[in-house]
Design brief:
The complex is a heterodimer of chains A (470) and B (697).
Chain A: H1 2-19, E1 35-42, E2 51-62, E3 65-77, H2 78-83, E4 86-93, E5 96-112, E6 115-121, E7 125-135, E8 140-147, E9 153-154, E10 158-159, E11 163-166, E12 176-181, E13 186-191, E14 196-202, E15 207-212, E16 218-223, E17 228-233, E18 238-244, E19 251-258, E20 266-272, E21 277-282, E22 287-293, E23 298-304, E24 309-314, E25 319-324, E26 329-335, E27 340-346, E28 349-354, E29 359-364, E30 369-375, E31 382-386, E32 390-395, E33 400-404, E34 410-415, E35 420-426, E36 431-436, E37 441-446, E38 451-457, E39 462-467
Parallel strand pairs in A: 1-8, 6-10
Antiparallel strand pairs in A: 1-4, 2-3, 2-5, 5-6, 5-7, 8-11, 9-10, 12-13, 12-39, 13-14, 15-16, 16-17, 17-18, 19-20, 20-21, 21-22, 23-24, 24-25, 25-26, 27-28, 28-29, 29-30, 31-32, 32-33, 33-34, 35-36, 36-37, 37-38
Chain B: H1 2-18, E1 25-42, E2 45-63, E3 68-81, E4 84-97, E5 103-116, E6 122-133, E7 140-152, E8 160-176, E9 179-194, E10 199-216, E11 221-239, E12 243-248, E13 253-258, E14 269-270, E15 294-314, H2 317-324, E16 332-337, E17 343-348, E18 352-354, E19 359-376, E20 386-398, E21 401-422, E22 425-440, E23 444-460, E24 464-477, E25 482-497, E26 500-513, E27 516-533, E28 536-549, E29 554-570, E30 573-588, E31 594-611, E32 614-623, E33 627-637, E34 640-649, E35 654-666, E36 669-680, E37 683-695
Antiparallel strand pairs in B: 1-2, 1-37, 2-3, 3-4, 4-5, 5-6, 6-7, 7-8, 8-9, 9-10, 10-11, 11-21, 12-20, 13-14, 13-15, 15-19, 15-20, 16-17, 16-19, 18-19, 21-22, 22-23, 23-24, 24-25, 25-26, 26-27, 27-28, 28-29, 29-30, 30-31, 31-32, 32-33, 33-34, 34-35, 35-36, 36-37
Classes of the chains: A mainly beta (470), B mainly beta (697).
Chain lengths: 470, 697
């Protein structure tokens, strides 16, 4: 059987190789050889005057010449900027050193009474000297424009914008939140205390799942489009190394299992949806060391370092596979309801979100049996437990989030008007973060008031969000 | 040395083969080192450990054409722990082919060579080939083959195993009569073979499933159904330990000759009745041991090892009794020959007599020959003692085989219906069926059936929302237990003001096994959160719960009260005070006793971020155990990060302090160092960790 299967695979491979050499390769929609520049604008003002203006051009200048970042029409409103950081533009420039940023403005107006009045610009091109901005090939960087609207009006009719430009610099990594943009090739870095995007790191193609090691030094990013895992240094927001994992089709999710408490290294477990297996990657040697066959169409994976187990949902066979990470073998399989797509754990219980059955199966980690079921009106996709045992469940199909009390009783259902996929929490700042895959945003939610606080644009198809805290 | 040589050769090969002639070839090379020094004094005993790890990587990627990319790398890993070295190398090669948007091909090979300073060299490899066709208007198709091997290099091998898996997946999405559907089929054939223990497992696995979705009445009624079938078979064959046992060696000739002049130089005549498996009928012409000088032998097709000869006789009861009593001495001698002509005298041999089988049993040291004979140098007895059969006995080796077969079939399906007649009312129902039958060496059969209802009604938008659900689930194990879980809940939620959010709910569940209730749980919970003022958020929660276990006769009543106060006096300072109190009373009907417990937890956290460059955090646990943690992070520039951490744990009487510096002066180089010290009374542990990375290319 083995030799026949291998021969068939090799013959088909050679046939297609010979017959299709001249066909054009599918390329991503962004240039891989240039540097990416993302421009955002924010303000620290709570109650600014209602000012609107349009940004028509953004240019980076160097001794070699100017590089166009953006040209078009982006309307900026102080009222919107006061609520959240606003995405201005994404551009691609040639790698090199830049020392100047020029922002061209037009059409400024201010609300006075019931109507709006035009303001005169003291100059159309606002120029900033940059302290040595070096952009490497395929690198991503974030430029933040800080704006003080209160100090931007002179003599009531002249708009002299009080801008300052911040180059990308890392915050304390204990404050960071990372979002993978699965429609592009970079991750966004957010400072949770500022609730702003402060950086972007280019990784591989179509990053999906992410995992942080036990000490918080490294962020591992699974690049589904290039079958690699990028290792990102969280303190300096730079890619440190890349692991080739060319052993699967459609790698989807990933979990980290430390080798010991407070250990730098460990193992990464990656689900391969079309291979129906989980591959094990040793972070020490940065190599695939094993593959484990699980149920069919494995999707989500969760690690429990205390029990040294990982849990894998299989969407086509409606089961949860429990893998013992000591010897990387299947320890048990639990049958669940239709299309399990997510898992969370709390107090020795696993909560499996079954999208097909609109139900959450509660499984005892000790007995490995279903002990309870929670019925929902919307099909659950992912969820997590936090804030003293409360549960938060998103439904990607219906665009909703369901809040639960610590007694697993529904307290509220909130419509998000997007495609929520993954969640993360900051219990220090009382925040819940949800990626909106459809609209390219990160949603900030107050879990106390169960309301949406703000939404900021991150990138194309944000998939995973993970926070790093002490 | 082999590792380094292999590394250099592989890297040079890649450079020579891949670089010339083509553009877009990217080289990368890097070096990573880690050094750790841990010293401790525990109970007055000093210990120290040093480890030094080095990882060197050389890689190259190249686009051979617009559609074909090849990439490879090799990593050499050297670890040194207290002088014990271990070297490993890991070459990797991948070929990917991405022509049109319709399909992709990929091939990769990955090999690990490990050479510990003490131990066996081992090699593991992974080979993968895959073909995928994305789903557009056609069914999607994925075919993947993986093979992994693990071997050592001993003779004979102690480790030699091989896994292979063939996966075929196809699915088709369609829309028919306003119904969105998906049909999927998956096949997996898994084989694992351990050549050392000669064990093998084969497992084919088939799954067919389908999903359907449709809305009715302009989207007010949503229906979702799924159905599936899977078949799984596994056969495990393992060879047990070899066993050596006695058995007759199949003869080719029976031989006999009466009183030859020289027993060492005689060709015995064929006597087929000696080997006709008839132990009762004397051979004819008869061989009568009353007379001396009978040469009775057995011959084989080739030299065989024997350790015994059985000579069967037919005689009277009286004579047999005399033989058993040892009255007769036949003066037996044993001879062997390679050609039935020249015989070697092996000497006198004294047989025992087995009266159950009526045979003389001649036992001797294992000897190898093509012909064996016994000669009675003396006759004995009055009544005829006639020979009927002769057998040669040797040792046989056998390896028994064990085969375990198991098949499992599973049928599953379910449906959910959600009806939203208006914006205020939502009603849902669901049903699920799952049946699994396992046959073969392990047998079991169980069925899971569950159904449930839920509803949500907005009485007054924002101010009052009611929701409830009921579900029941049974797992019926054939010839086993029947487990049932019933759950229902009722919740009322209100947000009377934009700054206040409240809810109250009731949830009840009951579990039973074979109709006997094993546990019950009733919970009433309430939750109020409010924004007292800008920068002041307060959340209060409480619950009353009652759980019972009729099997053990215990009932537990619990009251829980929790709070969370968040203060943000300035944007850069956040303070949180969180706590809870749980009071439980457990009554046991069996013992008649009652016990109460109170558990409290409280903690404070602080986050202070005065500038982007400074972060100060702390956490103070007040109850149930005391602990304080303070940390300071300072990033004076974008290239430097410094940290300081202090933890005090009075509950375990330990303290620890840690500090670290991380520096990234240029893109190609980074270095970081950490120091940590933990102490408790006179015991202490210190760790110094240094890590460096250099990107060479």
């Amino acid at each position: 059987m083995r030799s026949v299967g291998l021969r068939v695979v090799v013959c088909v491979f050679l046939l297609l190789l010979v017959t299709s050499c001249k066909i054009v390769q599918e390329r991503p929609s962004f240039p891989l050889s240039k540097a990416r520049v993302l421009v955002y604008i924010h303000t620290d003002s709570f109650f600014p005057p209602d000012i609107d203006f349009t940004i028509s051009k953004i240019v980076l200048g160097s001794e070699r010449g100017d590089a166009l970042v953006f040209e078009g029409s982006k309307r900026i409103s102080s009222m919107e900027v006061a609520k959240r950081q606003v995405f201005v533009a994404e551009g691609f420039v040639e790698p090199g050193d830049y020392n100047r940023l020029v922002v061209t403005l037009e059409s400024v107006s201010i609300r006075r009474g019931e109507g709006r009045s035009s303001l005169r610009l003291d100059r159309e091109d606002i120029e900033f000297n940059l302290k040595h901005l070096r952009l490497a090939r395929s690198e991503s960087t974030v430029l933040q424009i800080g704006w003080n609207p209160e100090k931007s009006i002179k003599k009531r009719i002249i708009f002299s914008p009080a801008f300052n430009v911040e180059l990308e610099r890392p915050s304390a990594r204990e404050l960071l939140l990372f979002v993978s943009n699965s429609g592009a090739n970079y991750i966004s870095v957010i400072d949770r205390s500022l609730e702003r995007i402060i950086g972007a790191v280019t990784v591989g193609l179509y990053p999906t799942a992410m995992a942080i090691n036990e000490t918080g030094d490294f962020l591992y990013v699974l690049n589904a489009g290039s079958n690699t895992i990028s290792i990102v240094d969280t303190a300096h927001m730079r890619v440190r190394d890349t692991i080739n994992i060319d052993v699967g089709i459609e790698p989807r999710d990933m979990a980290f299992m430390p080798s010991a408490k407070n250990s730098l290294e460990g193992k990464l477990y990656v689900t391969n949806r079309l291979y129906n297996n989980v591959i094990v990657v040793d972070t020490f040697t940065r190599r695939v060391i094993k593959s484990i066959d699980v149920g069919l169409a494995p999707s989500y994976i969760l690690a429990d370092p205390d029990r040294k187990e990982v849990y894998v949902t299989a969407e086509d066979t409606n089961e949860l596979t429990i893998v013992d990470t000591v010897d990387d073998s299947v320890a048990d399989t639990v049958k669940v309801d239709s299309r399990p797509t997510g898992i969370t754990r709390y107090n020795d219980k696993l909560y499996v979100f079954c999208e097909g059955g609109s139900i959450i199966e509660v499984i005892s980690q000790t007995d490995r049996k279903v002990t309870n079921e929670i019925t929902l009106t919307e099909p659950p996709t992912r969820g997590l437990k936090g804030f003293g045992g409360r549960m938060f469940v998103v439904s990607r199909r219906e665009g909703m989030i369901t809040f639960f009390s610590s007694a697993d009783v529904i307290t509220r259902i909130l419509r998000l008007d997007g495609e929520p996929v993954e969640l993360a929490t900051d219990e220090t700042r009382n925040r819940l973060y949800i990626t909106d895959y459809r609209d390219g945003e990160l949603i900030f939610i107050d879990p106390i008031g169960e309301v949406i606080v703000k939404e900021i644009v991150v990138g194309s198809k944000p998939y995973w969000v993970v926070q790093l805290d002490k | 040395m082999r590792i380094y040589t292999g590394f250099i050769l592989f890297g040079a090969t890649m450079l020579v083969v891949l670089l010339p002639l083509y553009s877009y070839a990217y080289l990368n090379a890097r070096a990573d080192v880690n050094y750790r020094d841990t010293s401790s004094i525990i109970g007055g005993v000093e210990t120290s450990t040093q480890s030094f790890d080095q990882l060197y990587t050389l890689g190259v990627s190249k686009r051979l054409t617009n559609t074909i990319t090849i990439l490879g790398d090799v990593r050499v890993f050297i670890t040194d722990v207290d002088g014990k070295k271990n070297e490993s190398s890991y070459p990797f090669l991948s070929l990917s082919f991405n022509p049109p948007t319709m399909y992709k091909l990929r091939f990769s090979y990955n090999r690990n060579e490990s050479l510990p300073s003490e131990g066996d060299r081992t090699t593991t490899s992974f080979m993968n080939a895959s073909f995928t066709m994305s789903q557009t208007e056609w069914p999607s198709l994925g075919v993947a083959y993986t093979r992994s091997t693990s071997q050592d290099h001993n003779t004979p091998r102690k480790l030699d195993s091989e896994d292979s898996t063939l996966n075929i997946n196809t699915s088709y999405r369609f829309t028919l009569l306003d119904t969105d559907g998906t049909l999927s089929y998956s096949f997996r054939y898994y084989k694992v073979e351990d050549k050392v223990s000669a064990a093998r497992t084969d497992s084919p696995y088939h799954t067919v499933s389908s999903n359907f979705r449709r809305t009715f009445f302009s989207g007010k009624l949503r229906a979702n159904a799924n159905i599936g079938y899977s078949y799984y078979e596994t056969e495990t064959e393992s060879l047990g330990g070899a066993t050596r046992f006695e058995d007759e060696v199949a003869p080719s000739e029976g031989l006999a000759e009466f009183n030859p002049p020289d027993a060492t130089s005689v060709t015995l005549s064929q006597e087929t009745e000696l080997i006709d498996n008839n132990r009762n009928t004397p051979v004819t012409p008869e061989i009568n041991l009353n007379n001396a000088g009978w040469n009775i032998g057995v011959g084989f097709m080739k030299a065989e090892s024997l350790h015994a000869i059985y000579l069967y006789i037919n005689t009277t009861v009286t004579e047999e009794s005399n033989i058993v009593g040892g009255l007769y001495n036949f003066g037996w001698r044993l001879y062997t020959s390679s050609d039935n002509a020249v015989w070697t005298d092996r000497g006198i041999i004294t047989p025992s007599y087995n009266s159950i089988y009526n045979r003389f049993e001649f036992s001797f040291s294992e000897a190898s020959a093509r012909y064996f004979k016994v000669v009675n140098t003396a006759g004995a007895g009055t009544d005829a003692i006639r020979v009927t059969e002769i057998e040669g006995i040797g040792y046989q080796l056998t390896i028994p085989k064990t085969t375990l077969e198991t098949t499992e079939t599973r049928e599953f399906g379910g449906m959910t219906l959600t009806y939203t007649p208006s914006k205020r009312l939502t009603i849902g129902a669901r049903v699920r069926y799952d049946h699994t039958l396992r046959e073969g060496d392990t047998e079991s059969e169980y069925t899971t059936a569950s159904y449930g209802f839920n509803t949500r009604y907005v009485v007054v938008p924002v101010y009052l929302v009611l929701s409830g659900d009921y579900s029941t689930s049974t797992v019926d194990v054939v010839d086993g237990t029947n487990t049932e879980i019933n759950t229902y809940s009722l919740v009322a939620t209100s947000s009377p003001l934009p700054t206040i959010n409240a809810n109250m709910g009731f949830r009840s569940s009951e579990s039973s096994v074979d109709g006997v209730t094993t546990s019950t749980s009733d919970i009433v919970s309430t939750h109020v959160s409010m924004r007292v003022y800008r920068g002041v958020d307060l959340t209060l929660g409480g619950s009353l719960s009652s759980t019972g276990n009729p099997t053990t006769g215990t009932d537990t009543d619990s009251r829980t009260f929790s709070w969370n106060l968040k203060l943000v006096p300035w944007s850069y300072l956040t303070l949180i005070y969180d706590g809870s109190v749980v009071r439980s009373t457990t009554d046991s009907a069996t013992t008649g006793s009652s016990s109460s417990t109170t558990t409290q937890s409280q903690y404070l956290t602080m986050s202070f971020v005065p500038t982007r460059a400074v972060f100060v955090g702390s956490r103070i646990n007040i109850e149930p155990t005391q602990m304080q943690n303070y940390n300071l992070i300072w990033t004076p520039t974008s290239k430097v990060r410094m940290s300081l951490d202090y933890t005090s744990n009075p509950s375990s009487d330990t303290e620890s302090v840690g500090t670290g510096i991380s520096w990234y002066p240029v893109r190609r180089f980074s270095i970081s160092t950490d120091y940590n010290k933990t102490w408790k009374d006179d015991d202490e542990t210190e760790t110094v960790f240094v890590r460096g990375s250099l990107i060479i290319i």
